[in-house]
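User: I'm new to structure prediction. If I give you an amino acid sequence, what do you actually give back? Let's try with this one:
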Amino acid sequence: MNNGEKEALILIRRGSIRSRAELARTLRISRPTASVIVDSLLKNSFIREAGRGRSTGGKAPTLLSVREEINHILGLDLGYKSRLSAVLLDGTGTVLRKKEYEFDPNSLEDIGEKSYTAMQELAGSLTVNGAGVALSGIVEKNTGKVLKSINPLFTGYKIKEVLSEKLDLPVFVENRSRMAAYSEAYGGAADQEKDFALISLGRSIGAAFWLNGQLFTGQSEIRNLRLKKKKTFEEALALSGTSCDATGEIISCCADGLGQLLEIMGMERIVLAGRFADMGKDFASQLEKELNKEHICKVTIAKFGRFSAARGAAFLQGEKIL
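Assistant: Good question. You get back a string of structure tokens that encode the predicted 3D arrangement of the chain. For your 322 residues, that looks like this:
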């Protein structure tokens, strides 16, 4: 597969393009060249034709879709204190199965065992081609080296080495907020959006920014934002303070912290992932109402909820393997 074919395959998988004409416009190539690329992907069974789209005056375009069977990827989220969220994706990025497991946060061996169990239970007879791992911490781009983590066991290459050996798969490691943003940008709550902020609540609170259709590659630490109530953002959202009785106070704290973020970034959409999905269906609308007293902003809960980071890690690993 040449570079043009790889780029086209990734765009089709992301849902960014659906036809030969869109491919030509997006890659700024001629329609005959786009057709050559598509025909090659069809011939090699990477994609399929998926019916006709809507006509804009001429012949209705033939729609393109990635084949589900081109790969299966395991996604693991280790961002919670002792809970592993696992998903299995097909070639299109669709979640086939998902499940959560308890693990010992002080034992790399147990994390490896639970990850292996997840792969066996979710995949069944399917062949798994790789694994994507999301965790709370700062991860060096391209290498998977964990520079800093809320769980010291994950620092360095330890988690990547343990899981690569246990699963016998290529393993990709990244920050969980960044992976949740990737997940929600393609098929999620912010599908095909150009700009949004994703705020993830797990064992810590993290943020990732999607700017002009791409993931911002710098560090995005918001947990130490100082709120009006003299607490940091992370202290205000500590596990002990997230009971149902404290929902109003949590909304107030979130509006304070995220309001500061909006002042700096000028975002108009915020996606809430991780434990925010546990705070009730009305949480996002109540937070949006509070924020809109001073800012114009749309707030939504991540489509993939607590599994968003796991799906994002698997989705990106799927692209890397392609």
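You can read the tokens as a compact description of the fold. Here is one thing that stands out. Residues 189-305 form a domain with the Nucleotidyltransferase; domain 5 fold (CATH 3.30.420.40).
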